Amino acid sequence: MQRTSGPGVRLRQLLSLRLVTVRLAKPAPAQLGLMLDGTRRLPVLDRRDRGTEFIQLSVSQIANPPESTGMAFWSINPYIGCEFGCSYCYARDTHRWTVERNGLAGGSVEPRFDFERRIFVKHDAATVLRKTLEPSRVGNRLVLIGTATDPYQPAERRFGVTRAILEALLGFRGLSIGITTKSPLVARDVRLLAMLAQLHRVSVSISIISSDPAVIRRFEPRTPLPHARLRAVRALAEAGIDVGLLIAPILPGITDGWGALGGLMAAGKEAGARRADGFALRLAPVARAGFLPVLSHDRALAARYQANYRGPQVGPAYQRALIGRLRTLQAIHGFPLNKFDPPTAARRPAPPSPPVAEPVTRLAL
Ligand code: SF4
Q: Which among 5, 59, 184, 249 is least surrounded, fewest beta carbons within 10 Å?
């Protein structure tokens, strides 16, 4: 017969209570962020009226080495997804992979808007960078911030992950750091960038496809307008920061005219850009699906794109003609003939002046 009182009994009762307590403390699936179907649910940091959700994403690594990306540089992307929502954006796949790889549950956002309305915020990026960055491993390679999504997209105003990453980089020396953005928000960090430039080689590229707001709005629903981006070029240049124009992507038959490219270069030069370069639109499947429908009202142009983009790249004849045009314009406007050339390259003899108004259709499209 078991005793019902005494110290041994109380001990057994306490032990059983602890067991019960432990069982109750075991997190329920919802507390683990698991949905009933086994997918994960991450904390929603904020929501906008138009439906955008900002989701907290923890990472174990923030600087991606060339070996893992196949690119020639290290890359850092503080956010996955981008509210700017450019029709030609190639990074939509990265967003889908992140969702699938992490087994994340669908948000309340319609799937076709997922990339631009469900933004993953790498909230611990700066801490992870401080712990994991090994400058000796990076060596002379460029560390490029904003290779897949814009590091100064609207989310940055709210969450400051890019700024925190730059602050973390103040703890290192001797790196080559590049930033690519379409946003004048980068000028917010002008003093921080100037401090960084004392410790590292720092360059900023302001990406822009046209100086015409109507063209911008046709292909980029929510990016800042050209005058604001050029104002950022000026602010950075005045602070002594190496800033250039990245005319990209150049849309064949739309933004590749002498006047359009030359006008952008002239505006960039006037604002203080030290370099200007560009490249043609790439149409990998995900970019093709977003971009081609925007052309649908112009059947002739849409047909030329279908004919000339048989794969992700436009044909080599067009590429050669475009590079020639860019080099000519770089020389005319006093830019290095190639962004990787030393600055003295701009002093090479200028090639012959271009024809005044060659129709853009002469390029292979
Ligand atoms: S700003 Fe860059 S990352 Fe954002 S949608 Fe446009 S192309 Fe994509």
A: 5
- Mean pLDDT to the nearest integer, 138-159: 96
Tokens 């629903």: give the residue: 221
Q: Per the omega criterion (within 30 degrees of 0), is the bond before 312 cis? A: no
3-state secondary structure 135-148: HHHHCCCEEEECCC
| pLDDT tens-place string over residues 300-341 | 999 999 999 999 999 999 999 999 999 999 999 999 997 544
Residue 64 covered by a domain? yes
Q: Which residues contact 220 (CB under 8 A, 6 or more apart)?
A: 84, 85, 86, 87, 182, 209
Mean pLDDT of 215-239: 97
In a domain, 333, yes or no: yes
Give the global pTM: 0.84
* pLDDT (average), residues 222-244: 98
The CA distances from residue 58 to 75, 98, 109, 147, 326, in Å, are: 17, 12, 21, 19, 41
CA of residue 136 to ligand 1 center, whole Å: 31
Six token digits for residue 363: 């390029």
In a domain, 101, yes or no: no
Q: What pLDDT, on a 0 to 100 scale, did the predictor assign at position 108?
A: 56
List the residue whose alpha carbon is closest to atom 8 of ligand 1.
Answer: 89
CATH of the domain at 162: 3.80.30.30
- Number of domains into which the chain is organized: 1
Cβ of 268 closer than 6 Å to ligand 1, yes or no, is no
- By most ligand atoms within 8 Å of CB, the mutation choice from 181, 223, 281, 291 for ligand 1 is 223
Q: Range of 200's domain?
A: 57-77+124-362
Interval between CA 327 and ligand 1 midpoint (Å): 26
Tell me the pLDDT tens digit for each residue of 175-212: 999 999 999 999 999 999 999 999 999 999 999 999 99
**275-285 burial by CB neighbour count: b if 16+ within 10 A, else e?**
bbbbebbbbee
Q: Which two tokens stand for residue 157?
A: 């105003």
In a domain, 172, yes or no: yes
